[in-house]
Structures are given as structure tokens and as C-alpha cells.
């Protein structure tokens, strides 16, 4: 079987090999400090008894699952700790497809490229629903696309790459569409701590056996290398997902889970608010520069990505490499995210050099 290989690593490697100074705005690796309590948890763990260096429970440390369940107002039995949101989405999509209720997966366009890749890997078929210019998803379009063949509807809010945030009425409608078609809404909420609009609504706010919510601490705690995520399943769907997780991964990292648990318990809201404030400043700096350069762009309501279109400079891989070589700024080609924004580029605002990158783009395109 041929799988679609995301372009992220190819672009990152090209930027790393380029001559001169290149500002990396390719991947969503936060550049700020993790919570201080996370480092404390790791240091504490180094002195643990040898038995604490052995396999943890396959579905995650009980105390971590209890902490997540309490925060998300679900039963602990519904929570599976995963190898980041990547595995959480894989388990959720697999569970939707293995119910013998169709093989179609409805995705948005633009789309985070790992979703169609996972669909192919799981032998499903993709159907795309285009979002509007601001990245908003119209539930009526999803309802028109859905049918008895629909196994899953996969959405991401706050969204990568558009920065859109889906309000409560949209989320409720999406759950309703899943119920009407015996499908599963898979709601990837990994950027929930980066809602800049105040409009974000979790799919967990809707009680249903037809929705699975996935998340991770990778972005919210700036620890993409720790690989601690989770999925919240309806009670009737969790057992098979737990078994698949065990067969694929056996278990997750005990030290990483311990550190995340300590950080969850000891980190107050100020940490997350400071990161949102930092991001708001970067959005303003970067989009103001895009205005000066005469670009068209999406201003994110959440997450930390900006989609940009420069006249006469379509977002191809060739032009991304050209921008790296000639302007010293590395972004992602729009065609990596589907067909709707092929002429666009995506930039991740997770570098302290956002202002430098903005100046370089103004000089190059202005």
C-alpha cells in the first residue's frame, strides 16, 4: 500500500541544509519554557525505586487518567493515555472504521495532512468539505456530504492550519450529524489552550456515544518530545481501542506521564495565559508585516499558524525552497494541506524570531 508522506520533514531538512541563516517557521514546536513543575517532576522521578522504571499500566498511569477524567468531567474508564495526539487520533479513527458502519472519513479542506494519511493507512476513503475563507466549517456542508457510508468526521479546533475556532453550535451540529449517520465525530482539540477568541467549545460538552475527543500535552506544556496524549472514548467504544493501543505500543513512557501529572497538579492558569499573551503579540507583529507586504492572510482565532498568500508566488514546494534560499524564512507549502489553499503558505509562530521573519518577508515581497 502506498502511503502519503507528509512534507514536514522534507522541508525541515532542506532548511537545515541551506546556506546562511534560516528562520524555522515550519513545524509546531513551541519555543517557550515548559512549566517549572514539569522539570520538578522529572527530577523527582530520577530518584524513584527501580520498580518505577518498569512498564506502567498500558492505558496510562491510573493517577494521570484520574486527573484527566476529573478535568474533562468523564469517567476514568473512558480515558486512554496515548503516544501523543498522533496515536490518539489513530485509535479514534480506527475505532470509527472498524464498527462496520461505512468506510468513508469526512475531512476538512484545508486539512492537517496526517488525517488523510491515517485514513489511507486504515483503508478508509477520504471525502473533503471545504471551509470558508476564515477556515470556518459550515455544518450544513458536512450534512450534505455525510451518508450511510460515513464512518468518521474528523475535525480540529482550534485549527491547524487555518487558526479557526469552532463555536459550540457548530460542535453540537457536528455531533448530531455523526449520530444521524451512525458515524463518529473525532474532535482533535490539541490546541484548546491556545483559543484566542474565547469561543472554543469541546465536543465533550455534548453527551453522545458518537464522539471521541483527542488531546495532548505536547503543545499546551511545550513538550512535543514527551509524547503524552490521550483520547476520551464513549464507554461502548473504549475497550477495543484499549486493546489496539496495547498491541501497537504496549504502554507509554512512565517518567513522561509522571512529569505531566506533577505539572498538571502544580501549574496554575497564569502559565497558559502568558503563552496565549505571547502568541497574541506574535500574531499582531506578523500580520502587521503581512499588511505592509501586501499579502492576503488568515488571522488565527486559535492555534499558532497563519496562512498567507503572496500574489504571483503560489505555495508550492519549489517556492518554499526558494523562500528559504532567498529570504531565509522557512514555511510550509499550502498544497501540503489539501487543494483549497494550494496558492498559500503556512507559517508557525513558534519562534522568538517572528519579528525578524516578518521583516525579511516585507523586504522580499514589499
From TrEMBL:
<keyword id="KW-0663">Pyridoxal phosphate</keyword>
<dbReference type="InterPro" id="IPR004839">
    <property type="entry name" value="Aminotransferase_I/II_large"/>
</dbReference>
<dbReference type="GO" id="GO:0006520">
    <property type="term" value="P:amino acid metabolic process"/>
</dbReference>
<comment type="subunit">
    <text>Homodimer.</text>
</comment>
<dbReference type="GO" id="GO:0030170">
    <property type="term" value="F:pyridoxal phosphate binding"/>
</dbReference>
<feature type="domain" description="Aminotransferase class I/classII large">
    <location>
        <begin position="21"/>
        <end position="352"/>
    </location>
</feature>
<dbReference type="Pfam" id="PF00155">
    <property type="entry name" value="Aminotran_1_2"/>
</dbReference>
<dbReference type="GO" id="GO:0008483">
    <property type="term" value="F:transaminase activity"/>
</dbReference>
<keyword id="KW-0808">Transferase</keyword>
<keyword id="KW-0032">Aminotransferase</keyword>
<protein>
    <recommendedName>
        <fullName>Aminotransferase</fullName>
        <ecNumber>2.6.1.-</ecNumber>
    </recommendedName>
</protein>
<dbReference type="InterPro" id="IPR015424">
    <property type="entry name" value="PyrdxlP-dep_Trfase"/>
</dbReference>
<comment type="similarity">
    <text>Belongs to the class-I pyridoxal-phosphate-dependent aminotransferase family.</text>
</comment>
<dbReference type="InterPro" id="IPR015421">
    <property type="entry name" value="PyrdxlP-dep_Trfase_major"/>
</dbReference>
<dbReference type="InterPro" id="IPR004838">
    <property type="entry name" value="NHTrfase_class1_PyrdxlP-BS"/>
</dbReference>
<dbReference type="InterPro" id="IPR050596">
    <property type="entry name" value="AspAT/PAT-like"/>
</dbReference>
Amino acid at each position: 500500500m502506498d502511503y502519503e508522506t507528509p512534507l514536514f520533514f522534507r522541508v525541515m531538512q532542506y532548511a537545515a541544509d541551506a546556506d546562511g541563516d534560516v528562520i524555522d517557521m515550519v513545524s509546531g514546536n513551541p519555543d517557550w519554557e515548559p512549566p517549572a513543575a514539569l522539570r520538578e517532576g522529572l527530577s523527582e522521578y530520577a530518584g524513584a525505586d527501580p520498580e518505577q522504571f518498569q512498564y506502567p499500566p498500558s492505558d496510562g498511569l491510573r493517577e494521570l487518567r484520574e486527573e484527566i477524567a476529573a478535568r474533562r468531567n468523564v469517567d476514568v474508564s473512558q480515558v486512554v493515555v496515548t503516544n501523543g495526539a498522533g496515536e490518539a487520533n489513530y485509535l479514534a479513527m480506527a475505532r470509527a472504521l472498524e464498527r462496520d458502519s461505512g468506510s468513508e472519513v469526512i475531512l476538512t479542506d484545508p486539512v492537517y495532512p496526517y488525517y488523510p494519511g491515517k485514513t489511507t493507512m486504515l483503508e478508509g476513503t477520504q471525502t473533503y468539505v471545504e471551509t470558508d475563507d476564515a477556515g470556518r466549517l459550515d455544518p450544513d456542508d458536512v450534512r450534505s456530504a455525510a451518508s450511510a457510508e460515513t464512518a468518521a468526521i474528523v475535525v480540529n479546533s482550534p485549527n491547524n492550519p487555518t487558526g479557526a475556532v469552532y463555536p459550540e453550535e457548530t460542535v453540537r451540529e457536528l455531533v448530531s450529524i455523526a449520530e444521524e449517520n451512525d458515524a463518529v465525530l473525532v474532535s482533535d482539540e490539541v490546541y484548546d489552550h491556545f483559543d484566542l477568541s474565547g469561543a472554543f467549545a469541546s465536543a465533550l460538552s455534548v453527551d453522545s456515544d458518537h464522539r471521541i475527543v483527542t488531546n495532548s500535552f505536547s503543545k499546551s506544556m511545550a513538550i512535543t518530545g514527551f509524547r503524552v496524549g490521550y483520547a476520551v472514548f464513549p464507554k461502548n467504544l473504549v475497550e477495543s481501542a484499549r486493546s489496539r493501543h496495547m498491541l501497537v505500543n504496549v504502554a507509554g513512557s512512565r517518567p513522561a506521564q509522571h512529569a505531566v501529572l506533577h505539572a498538571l497538579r502544580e501549574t496554575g492558569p497564569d502559565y497558559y495565559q502568558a503563552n496565549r499573551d505571547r502568541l497574541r503579540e506574535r500574531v499582531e507583529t506578523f500580520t502587521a508585516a503581512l499588511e505592509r507586504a501586501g499579502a492576503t492572510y488568515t488571522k488565527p482565532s486559535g492555534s499558532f499558524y497563519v496562512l498567507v498568500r503572496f500574489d504571483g508566488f503560489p505555495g508550492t514546494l519549489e517556492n518554499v525552497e526558494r523562500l528559504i534560499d532567498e529570504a531565509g524564512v522557512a514555511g510550509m507549502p499550502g498544497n501540503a494541506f489539501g487543494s483549497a489553499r494550494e496558492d498559500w503558505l503556512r507559517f508557525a509562530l513558534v519562534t522568538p524570531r517572528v519579528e525578524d521573519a516578518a521583516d525579511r518577508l516585507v523586504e522580499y515581497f514589499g
